[in-house]
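Re: beginner question about structure tokens

> Can someone show what the tokenized structure looks like for a real chain? I only ever see the sequence side.

Sure, here's an example I had lying around. Input first:
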Amino acid sequence: MARRSKSAAATAAPIAAISGEAYGTVKPPGSRASYVQDVLRSEILSGTMPPGAPILQDAIAERLGVSITPVREALRNLESVGLVVYEANFGAKVAEFTAAEIEELYTLRATVEGLAARLAATSITEAELGPLRAAHQELRQASADGDPQAMAAASRRFHDRIARVGGRSIIARHLGWIWETHPVPIGQSVWSHPEMAAHAVESNARLLALLEARDADGAEKHMIAQVRSAATARLTGNWQPADE
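And the corresponding structure tokens:
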């Protein structure tokens, strides 16, 4: 199920920053279709519109104060990135990942992110370690605050920096595409579950230590195990420590 994000900037916007108010009240920059798309994408990722939920176009148009045309355009765009599907005699609904698709996605991520970690460990400088340490400190603070969305954002920054150090010309670009086009709804992420989130925070701390030690084999192995742990958590609700 291919998924393409409208833009990295839209994806990076905090969910709380997107409101479901009428377009005329908010008066955001951009078109009505873009606004509807941002709202619906936010609601899908936040779990407000869960997987399989029907999408009633007339109700959305009325709620957001737009005509049906921008709603249809927004849904076509969300369909093209895999967040919305259409079924005969049913209409539009929020897309659902099968277990097989989740396994495939995380296998791909483990392979690419593992390589990025290996390459990063072989070339990372003290100057590059600084922002990584800062991102991980932000993750710890978000964990202490019990803020799942802030934890998810900080972890994403942490892993993005690793990818940019390890493969800034090709790998980081492809990883960015995977992350942007296969977003994890916050309710399905480890960050919404305190015990699993705590394990994930410590797993990132271990990964940082391996990069500081320039341990390429260890960093690759740990990253692969970490991604696989995230897959297990998403599929079963249980986190398997990356070192096991």
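Each token stands for a local structural state, so reading them left to right follows the chain. The radius of gyration is 19 Å.
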